[in-house]
Structure formats: structure tokens, C-alpha cells
Amino acid sequence: MTTRRQVLKSSIAPMIVPSYVLGQRSGNVAPSDKVVMGGIGIGSRGAHDLSKILKFQDAKFLAICDVRNERRETIKSTVDQAYGNRDCKMYSDQFELLARTDIDAVLIATGDRWHTPLSIIAAQHGKDVYCEKPCSMSIEESWALAETFRRYNRLYQAGCQRRNGANFKLCRELLQSGALGKLKALYANVGPSANWPPLPSRDWLEGQELPPNGLLDWDRWLGPAPWRPYHPSYVQGGWRNYYDFHGGGILEWGSHTVDLCHWAANLDETQPIEYEPVGGNTGPYSVNCVYANGVKLVMRDNAWDGALDTGSCSFRIEGDLGWVETGDKTKIEASSNIKPLLRPTEAAAMALENHMREFVTCVRTRTTPSANASAAANSHVTCHAAFIAFQRGKTLSWSVEKREFTNDEIANRMRSRAIREPWRI
Amino acid sequence: MPQTNATTPAPAKPKPPVAPPQLQEGDISKLDSQGLLKILTDVSSEFQKAKACQRAGELGATAAIPALAALLGDDKLGTYARYGLEPMHVPAADEALRSALSRLKGNLLIGVIGSIGKRRDVLALPALIKLMRSTDASVAQAAVAAIGNIGTSESASALQALLPKATGMMKIVVADAGLTCAERLLSAGKREQGLALYTFLSGPDTPRAARHGAMNAIVREETSLTRPRTAL
């Protein structure tokens, strides 16, 4: 027969839970309440993203997948050092990482060609995604991205961190409060032609011997991009400015600055209806666009820091009462009547931490991040349409409803790119 | 306003390597249909053929379809051949891809199946349903994805029959194809069939991520302001 004392003894034991599990020590977060993350393809930019994640008490980074041995080891070492353990697991196959049921979300910071396919695969495995920009290689991929995240009801945050930059937010606030008056035009600085011409090369580099001892899986590095012979320059960051891997200057910065314009003007769910390319590949160049409501969007090569020295990735809002312009130098330039409304803001460099912070909070609370898949799709479709107009060298008209160009069949055929087998979107 | 040095500095520009003349696209970008066809059928380099395939697709050079079809079995140029065929919206491109189903294997077959799925070629369904049972798991998965993308009532039946038997990665792919297929049915106005497929996918046989997607879709569809309503 069981005594009352025995019953109490057996039931109390499991009720003793270490305080750290419940997060009761000052500032601690219960392990059960932490967002568990993994990373795929973490190079220099991804390492910057990762450094923010490692600062958060409510996130834990537990796995890295990369096709490069050296990068895997480097990231594992960084993570293990930050946490004081050896828990970060390494993978070369993304499916193995994504099969882990303890991982809630993944950071994707591969080259552009992998962004959409990997994000889609992650969503199919039930993961939320923070993905670096540009998020897609084509108009078709942009829509597929949005549709997949809607289909799976997963959360997606594009690496468009300026949405969480205080100086950018203040500019948006000035438009939305009515201080700038009726919106007339938006200006998005795109990649300077000196760094990323608007027409990336379709050439190949001379093939070279692969690194020895399986140090690089070239087939997996290429992934969904069409085959070409190996050259070390591609792997060392030189993939940019090659059409099969990159969308040129328009996608390189437009994915940030067109995104800012859409966000500031509440245009996250639409695209311009006209795209007029101006200038040549050596720059300066621009694409003049018009939305259905008559608002202008000018994507412009404005050198690195912009004519007003506001810094990289600047954008400008013009209303009928005034204008503002800001960029990565944090300072805001404005028309004289708007200047009294400006106030000090935190440094633009804080935007990334704020943006990653927003993502982790959204994963915990199941709320939609600001740079979600639908917003990213619309801004990227806008950039791709401008990129196609530049390639075609003519003004293109676009139907938002039909998602097609209405005056150029060649442009319509450029809305998608074949994906190398065995990958798909 | 605070002045900081927080800006991202312009990246230093080491001189990038230059493509040798034989690997530069040059005038291939300006060729018409006949010029591209000549490259594709003459003794040309791998590089020239790759570029000609891409430009043929953009130009809509339908005269090049047989030449592109002939390259579908090339290990390196197969993707480029599909680059050419995928955007050509003429039956001859569908026929070229469909006829390749019986002669290709492995990754090249997977690529062609993907292109057929993208083009939503209904006439390829019987062949795809056979390939769904391929012993090559990757081929079978590609066929399943294409069937879902084509998204007909027949697709729905095939996927529903397969899901309970599928395991592991195949189960994830079948469920994903089911979700896509349901969306296609809804878009085609086949609301009842779409909802029935979602209901099926809400069952215990479906992997969790897709099951939640199906449940979410039912709620979204049933609460949509544009849904059909019964007259009072």
C-alpha cells in the first residue's frame, strides 16, 4: 500500500525545475522560450548577421551548413566561442540541417542564386527564414517566394535592415504625417555603375582546376545556376557582376532602396506600371518608373554616397510641400521648411541589429516581420522589371494585375530563368 | 543631426579577372533566330552554344526548338537548352520536352520534368504519373512536384493516392505538391475540389508544416470575403 508520504515524495521530485530552465535568473530566457536557429552559407555578410544573433538572450544558434569546409569551421568556432561550448553542429547538406526538428528558423546568407530555392525548401520544412538580399533571381522567383511563405504560414524577413534604421524611419514618418504634403516622387539610389554596372556580364572565366581534397563542392556551389567551368574568383565573391549569379547594380542596391521607397509610401503590395531606362552600362544610369497613382519612382546611379553625401543606399522622398533624403551616413538632408522637424536619431549602423531583433521577436510572438515575403516580392519584382527594361533598352509597360509586360514579348520571356537540375522552386 | 562614420565604405576594387575572347558573349547577343540556330547546329564551342540557348529563349526563336531539344541530354548544356525552351509558349516546345521524358535519366530527366511542371503541360500528366513511381527517388519527387504544379483534378487524385504510402522526403514533396495543386484548383474556380484537397491534407498523414498550411488555407478560404455564399 502506498502512503501519503510516498505519494508526495514521488510527485514533488519532477516539480523541482532548475531556475535557469524557467528563465528566472535576472535577464535569462528559458531554453524553451529561445528561438533556435541554424545558418546556411555564412560568408562575410552572414557573419555580420550572425554577430547580432549571438548577442540575443532569446536566440540560440546551433548549426551551420556550408559547401566550403573552411567557412563551416570558422562559423562553428565563432559560435562555440560565443557560447562557451562545442554545440554548433556542421553540415554540408542543407537537407540534414533542415530535417532537425529542434531548429525553428534559419539565416540564409548564400550567394543570390540560392536565396529563393533555399528559402522555399526551408519553409517546406516548417522553418521561418531570415534571408539576405537580393532575395530572388527573377520575377518568377519573387512570386514563388511570396506564395510559398503564404502557403506554409511561415515567417520571412528579407535582409532589408534599413526598415529598422532610425533615420530611415524618421523620413517615413515625415511623409506619413503629411509634413511633406502629397507624395510626388521617390528616389532609390541603385548600385553605382563603377561597382556593379546595370548589365552584368554573360561571359565565362577560363576554367581552372578545382581545389584539392574536396575543399569545395563546385556542383553544390553553383546550385540552381547554369553550369560553367570553375574559377576561384567566383567563389571569392567575384560572382557578382555575372548575369547567371547576379542582377547587376539595380538588384544589388535596389533591393534595399526600392524596398525603402515602397515601405515609406505604403506601396508594399504593388509595383510601378512603367519603366523607362536612361543611360548606358558605364553610367550614370537611371530607370524612371511610374505607379498607377501617378507617383514617380526614380532608380538612379548617384555614385556611392549620393550627390548630397548622405551615404550608401540613400533614398529620397519628394512631396508637394517638401523633401527628405537619407542614407547610411545617418544624416538627413531636407528642404528648409522640413529641417525644423528633424531630430537626432541613432546611427544607421544600428539598423541591422534592430532588424534581426525584430525577426527573432516575430518568431517568438508569431507576428509578421516588416520586410516580409510579400513586401520583398513586390520590391524585387519592381527591381527585376527595371533590370529587364534596362536590358531591353526600351520603355516597358507592366500590368500589375496580369503580372506581365504589355508591350514586349521578349521582356515577358525574361521574367523567369531555368533552374539547374536537380533544384526547383 | 548626428554625424557618424557609420556608413558602409565603398568596397576596394581589386582588378577582376577578364574573360578570354573565346568566352565572351560579344555579338551572340545581337544575333537573330537564324544566327542563333547556326551556332546551335554548327560545330560551336560549349560556351557559344550555352549563350545561343539563352538568347534563343529570350528572343522566342522557335526555329531553334529542334536544336534545343537535341541538347537536353547534354550534361553541361541541358539547363541552357531548357533556358531556351521554357519561355517559348508554343506547342512544339511542350512536345520537345515531353518526348525527352522517355530518353533521359537522372538529373537531366529531373530538369526536363521541372520545365514541364513550370509550363503546366497537361498532356504530360500520364507520363508524369508513371514517373511518380520511378525507382529513382529524385525523379519521382520531381514528377510529384510537376504534377502538383499542373494542378488538375487528375493531379489531385494522383497525389491523394500517393500521400499515405509516401515516407521521409517524398512525403514532404507530395504534401507540398498537394498544397500547390489545391491553389491551382481554387484559381481555376474548382473551389469544392480545392477545399476537399486541403481537408485531405489536414489529416494525420501529412507532415506538420504542410498540415498547418492546409488548415490555414481552409480558414483563409472559408473566411474570405469573396467566397461563394449560400443564399438565405
Describe this structure in words.
The complex is a heterodimer of chains A (425) and B (232). Chain A has 425 residues and is an alpha/beta fold. Chain A has 14 helices and 15 strands. Helix content of chain A is 35%, strand content 16%. Chain B is elongated. The longest helix of chain B has 20 residues. Chain B has two domains: 76 residues, no CATH class; 122 residues, Alpha Horseshoe (Leucine-rich Repeat Variant). In chain B, 59% of the residues lie in helices and 0% in strands. Chain B has twelve helices and no strands. The interface between A and B is large, with 57 and 62 residues.
In the CATH hierarchy, the third-tier topology of the largest domain in chain A is known as: Dihydrodipicolinate Reductase, domain 2
CATH class of the largest domain in chain B: Mainly Alpha
Provide the β-strand percentage band of chain B.
under 5%
Largest interface: A-B, 57 and 62 residues
Overview features:
heterodimer; A: 425 residues; alpha/beta; Rossmann fold; Dihydrodipicolinate Reductase, domain 2; 2 domains; nine-stranded mixed β-sheet; 14 helices; 15 strands; B: 232 residues; mainly alpha; Leucine-rich Repeat Variant; 12 helices; 59% helix; disordered N terminus
Concise structural overview:
The complex is a heterodimer of chains A (425) and B (232). Chain A is an alpha/beta fold.
Strand and helix layout:
The complex is a heterodimer of chains A (425) and B (232).
Chain A lengths: L3 H9 L6 H4 L12 E6 L3 H10 L5 E7 L3 H15 L5 E3 L2 H5 L6 E4 L3 H13 L3 E4 L7 H14 L3 E3 L7 H11 L6 E8 L27 H5 L9 H7 L9 H17 L9 E5 L7 E5 L5 E6 L13 E5 L3 E4 L5 E3 L16 H15 L7 H20 L3 E4 L4 E2 L3 H5 L12
Parallel strand pairs in A: 1-2, 1-4, 2-3, 4-5, 5-6, 7-10
Antiparallel strand pairs in A: 7-11, 8-9, 8-14, 9-10, 11-12, 12-13, 14-15
Chain B lengths: L32 H9 L4 H14 L5 H6 L7 H8 L5 H10 L5 H14 L5 H7 L5 H14 L2 H10 L5 H20 L3 H11 L6 H15 L10
